[in-house]
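INTERNAL AUDIT FORM
Audit reference: QA-55
Scope: verify that the stored structure record matches its stored sequence.
Auditor: D.O.
Record contents follow.
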Amino acid sequence: GKPMRYITRIILVITVLSLCMPFQVFSQSSQQKILIGILPEMNVFKQKQRFKLLGEYLSKKTGVTVEFTILSRYGNIIERFTAEKMDGAFFGSFTGALAIQKLGVVPLARPVNLDNTSTYHGYLFVRKDSGIKSVKDMKGKRMAFVEKATTAGYIFPLAYLRENGIADVERFFSESFFAGSHDAAISAVLNRKADVGAAKHSIYDRVRKDDPRVDSELIILAESPRVPSNGLCVRKGIDNGLKQKLKEALLGLHKDPEGANVLKQFGALKFIETSARDYQPVFEVATKAGIDIKTYDYRNK
């Protein structure tokens, strides 16, 4: 009887130990935690809320702890990506194009918006009572951009102004400034801190839902070409199995009952596959704006 009890005790100890061990030990990937960057496209608190369930869901599906870090600014994402050893980021279309060029990141998937598009476009807008109807009416006025490293919030308005004969933006406007986020650029124009503003349509639509003043007081003068919505790109050397798991988890969200809540909080219908090719329109807008992505200094002064 004694040896038997002894063996049972050993089995018990082994079982208890294996239960205490972190689950990751048994998954193929040696990595136990991944860090994913998020851009501050809207109020940081709202951004955090938006990604909360997605993080929990991806952690569960991949067996690896997924942590998000919200960047304070667009312009330093390339440096921070490298310095903080991020494994991925939900890049905007311009920062995505930059990271593909400079860091060789691999796009995995991007969200389909509630309006069934998987792209976004930039708006150039003014107050209805401003009397501004075209580019020439903007001369000497105040302009609210978002950040230097955003398609909708800077590259597109620059391209649009150039196409309308304005090469020197600094001299054309009496003042131009970077609002820091798309919703901040919208409220700058609403609250008469700027006469002209630029923002991405998806954030404009979100603000529009909450604030009736957007429709009653603002008017959209121009729209940019379509560029890919903020998708998840991962670093070059990431474990292949992990990359596959992340991609499959995102692409399968809408088929999973648990995924429905995640998508609702995130504000998307589903995720679709994305490749570097999808970023072509961004390079085209940049060229029109007179910007060479390879050498562009995208940091805000």
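Auditor finding: record pair retrieved intact. Residues 109 and 274 are 5 Å apart (CA to CA).
Action required: none
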